[in-house]
Amino acid sequence: RKEVEQDPGPFNVPEGATVAFNCTYSNSASQSFFWYRQDCRKEPKLLMSVYSSGNEDGRFTAQLNRASQYISLLIRDSKLSDSATYLCVGSSGGSYIPTFGRGTSLIVHP
Amino acid sequence: ETGVTQSPTHLIKTRGQQVTLRCSSQSGHNTVSWYQQALGQGPQFIFQYYREEENGRGNFPPRFSGLQFPNYSSELNVNALELDDSALYLCASSIKQGHYNSPLHFGNGTRLTVT
């Protein structure tokens, strides 16, 4: 089983839709979680950190569920510019090495 | 604030050759991590350096090696290149203080093609 798993999608949604991604992690000792956004042929960029209490930034909300070992990302009122790959990251091992999922592709269409 | 810079941006090598990729950390960051990203996959962890020592290593063979310098810049060396080494190589810097680890900040990457 991979340490961090994501549904690769693609998720095809119309503008204005609400879309949610989940990501599961296998290491119960993982401490730090993040969502990154990656545009085609570009480097990943930090979207938001995921705190135990949840985190909201504008149209984006991230949640952590330690009991079920998953994190989620909710995007409200999708924009065309939200089209990208969203990477889930959990830290693993005693050295807190960030481990990436394979990413979920989001396509927002007019 | 200077971000993470990587060089070169693109590179074409022949199978069996050796390659060195370079990375300058973001100002104030003490940790460098290297990732390999194949097309359609997430970044795969190669290794991490903290205070010039290897702090963790992923599932990559010994022909992948690295260095971190006193100014926190870093190199990734790959010997005996194979066709499957063709990928985007990403360097990311971060801050490690005790158990606190800041998020990774990535460079633009080096796209390596092995023919």
**For the residues shown, what is the average pLDDT of chain B?**
94
Mean of residue pLDDT values of chain A: 92
Return the structural class of chain A: mainly beta
Summarize the main sheet of chain A. 6 strands, mixed
Shape of chain B: globular
- Helix count of chain A, per DSSP? 0
Q: Structural class of the secondary structure composition of chain B?
A: mainly beta
Largest sheet of chain B: 7 strands, mixed
The proportion of residues in beta strands of chain A is over 45%
Order of H and E elements of chain A: EEEEEEEEEEE
What is the distance, rounded to the nearest whole angstrom, between the alpha carbons of the first and last residues of chain A?
37 Å
How far is it from the N-terminal to the C-terminal residue of chain B, by CA? 38 Å
Compute the CA-based radius of gyration of chain B: 13 Å
Tell me the greatest interface: A-B, 26 and 24 residues
Number of strands of chain B: 13
Q: Helices and strands of chain B, in N-to-C order?
A: EEEEEEEEEEEEE
Secondary structure elements and their pairing?
The complex is a heterodimer of chains A (110) and B (115).
Chain A: E1 4-6, E2 11-14, E3 19-25, E4 33-38, E5 45-50, E6 55-57, E7 60-65, E8 70-75, E9 84-92, E10 97-100, E11 104-109
Parallel strand pairs in A: 2-11
Antiparallel strand pairs in A: 1-3, 3-8, 4-5, 4-9, 6-7, 7-8, 9-10, 9-11
Chain B: E1 5-7, E2 10-13, E3 19-24, E4 31-37, E5 44-50, E6 53-57, E7 64-68, E8 74-78, E9 87-94, E10 96-97, E11 100-101, E12 105-106, E13 110-114
Parallel strand pairs in B: 2-13
Antiparallel strand pairs in B: 1-3, 3-8, 4-5, 4-9, 5-6, 7-8, 9-12, 9-13, 10-11
